[in-house]
Amino acid sequence: MKITSIRKKLSVGLMVLALSASLLTALFTFFYSFKSAYSLQDDILQQTAYLVDEHSQTPEVLLNNHDNRILIQNHNTDPQQDYFIADLDQYEEGFHTISKGNIKYRFYLKTLNQQKIAVIFDESEFRDEIIVHSIWLSTVPVLLFILLMLPLAIWIIGCSIAPIDRLAKTLQARSENDLTALETDNVPQELRGFIHSINQMLDKVAASMRQQKRFIADASHELRSPMTALSLQAERLIKLQQLQNHGSEQTGVLEQANALSQGIQRIRHLLEQLLSLARLQAGAAQSDSRQSAVSILAVYRQVLADLLPLADEKAIDIGLVSDVDVSICADQSDIYILLKTLCENSVTYVPPGGQVDLAVCLFQDSDGEWLMLEVDDNGNGIPPEERLRVLDPFYRVLGSGQQGTGLGLAIANSIVKRYHGKIILSDSKRFAHGLNSTVYLPIGLCSATN
Q: Which stretch of DSSP H or E encloses residue 358?
C-alpha cells in the first residue's frame, strides 16, 4: 500500500505552484518586453525622422555602443555603407524591416522635397537586450522570493501539521485500556471533528467494556456459587463414606467420590483462573487508581504462607535467597497474583523433594532501572522452543505429568504487560536443571530500596 505524506504533498505542490508562477511571469514579461521594445524603437525612429532633412548625416559619435545606433540614409549617403538600402525608392512611407546578411534593420521612411529619407535602427541586439534585461528585472526577484519563501513555507506547513503528529504520539503512548477522551484545547479547528469522532468511538468502547465487566462479575457469582456447593457436597459425601466404610463396595464409592471431588476442584480452579484473566484484561484502566507503594518482600512472605501446605505435602524446599526489599508503585493484588502464579507453577511442576528459590533485586540498563523478580527451581524445566508458547492461554507442555489449566503463565504475562514490563523464561541459574522465571518491572516514582 502506497503511503502518502500531507507534508510532502503540500511542500511539492507549493514548489510547483511557485515555479509555475515564475515561469508564467517570465513568459508574460518576454512577450510584453518584446512588444514594448518594438514600440519604443518605432517611436524613436519616427521622432528622429521629423528632426532630419535631406542634408543630415549619421553622427560620428554613436549612442552607448554599436548595437543601439541610429543611422540616416539620404542622397548624400555612401552606397558602400553596410546599412545602405539600394532600392529605397521602392518602399512607401512608414515603417519597414529588412535583413542584410545576419543583421536585421528597422527603418522609418519619409519623403522630403521629393527625396526619400530613411532613419534606420541597427536592431541586431538592441531589442534582445531590452527583452533580456526586462526578463531579468522581473524574474530574478521572483526567483529570489521563491528561494526565501519555500523554506519558510515548509516550516509553516510543518508547524501546521505538528498537532497531527502530537495526536498520533499521544494515541501511540496510550495503553490499550486507556479510554479517556482526547483533549480538544489548543487543537486546530480542522482536527476537532476528527477528535470528536475518536472520542465518540472511545465512549462506545468504554461502554462495551463496562458491560463486559458487569457480565464478568455476574458470571463470577453465578459460576462460583454452584461449584462451591458441589464441592461441599462432594466433601460431605466423602466424609459420609469414610464413616460408613465397611466393605469393598463402599470403598469403590469412596474412590469415585474422591475422583469427583478432585474434578470439581480442577473445574473450580479453572473458573477462578478464567475469571482472573478476564478481570485483568477488562479492568486494567481502573487499576491505576488503586496503585500504592507495595513491598515485594511482604508479598513474597504472603505467597510463601499460602503455598507452604502444598510445598510441605511434596517436601519442597521453598524460600527467599535475598533480603533486599524494594517498594514499587503497583496494585498490591496484581503483584500478589503475579508472584503466587509463578511460585505455584514451580511448586506444582517440581518433583517431590525439589527446591524453589525466590529472589528480588534491582537491575539497570540503557532503558532505565528495573525491578527484577526471580523464581528459580530444579524441576524438569520447559523446552526452549515452547517458552514463548506457554505464555499463551490454554497452552500446556505435554509430558509434564500434571493436569494444569494452561492459564497460569498467561495471567502472569497479562499482569507484566499491564505494567509495561517483560517476563523471560530460561534455564535455571542456580541448579543443574530446571526453569528460571524472571520478571522485569520498571521502577515507579514511589519506589524505594531499604
A: strand 355-365
